[in-house]
């Protein structure tokens, strides 16, 4: 399971890395290899600051003339947990998802892209339904693990102890959703019940 998430206020602007098949869910860990010159500059900027940058699913190619329509509207803000610079100037790092954010505009394209963002809050319209969905997901997870599906060790040990619905949903989505398109759907749903329902639907198809 991911490290505890620090309580950092959402910045008004943030550097963003666009990737075609990647969605950074909150609480998940994403390994990255940084080699493009613009993203090497972005990494240096992040490391000199609060160690944060965002990852957006890229919708159009190429993205060198980036505008907000080229990326998914809801992106993942991440924190650099570990970073190793190599002799050739490239870097390997682990980025931890912190929270969702909605893109409102492009701040700059060069020397690396940054976007303006606002919070994308989670709502829980039907807490009773949410509790029922969590129970169903736990049951399906037990069946999948009994059938040989492997979860990260810490998550496997503590899955029954997670009480926060949003944390539970994001961890289950990261563990069971493989399709970037489905991950993006979950990312862009504000209601936790809708997110949990989609995760459950995918898990039922896996059984």
Content-based structural category: alpha+beta
Whole-Å distance between the termini?
Answer: 23 Å
Compute the average pLDDT: 90
What's the helical proportion of residues?
25-40%
Strand order of the biggest β-sheet: 1-3-4-5-6
Strand content: 25-35%
H/E element order: EEHEEEEHHHHH
Q: In this structure, how is the largest beta sheet organized?
A: 5 strands, mixed, barrel
Shape: globular
The beta-strand count equals: 6
- Unreliable stretches: none
Number of helices: 6
Radius of gyration using CA atoms only? 17 Å
Descriptive notes:
A hairpin with a 5-residue loop joins strand 5 (91-108) and strand 6 (114-119). The mean pLDDT is 90. This protein is globular. A five-stranded mixed barrel has the order 1-3-4-5-6. It is α+β, with helices and mostly antiparallel strands. The longest helix has 20 residues, at 127-146. The chain has six helices and six strands; from the N terminus they run E-E-H-E-E-E-E-H-H-H-H-H.
Features:
207 residues; alpha+beta; 6 helices; 6 strands
What topology emerges from the helices and strands here?
Layout: E1 13-19, E2 29-34, H1 37-48, E3 52-57, E4 74-85, E5 91-108, E6 114-119, H2 127-146, H3 153-158, H4 165-176, H5 180-187, H6 192-206
Parallel strand pairs: 1-3
Antiparallel strand pairs: 1-6, 2-5, 3-4, 4-5, 5-6
Helix pairs in contact: 2-4, 2-6, 4-6, 5-6
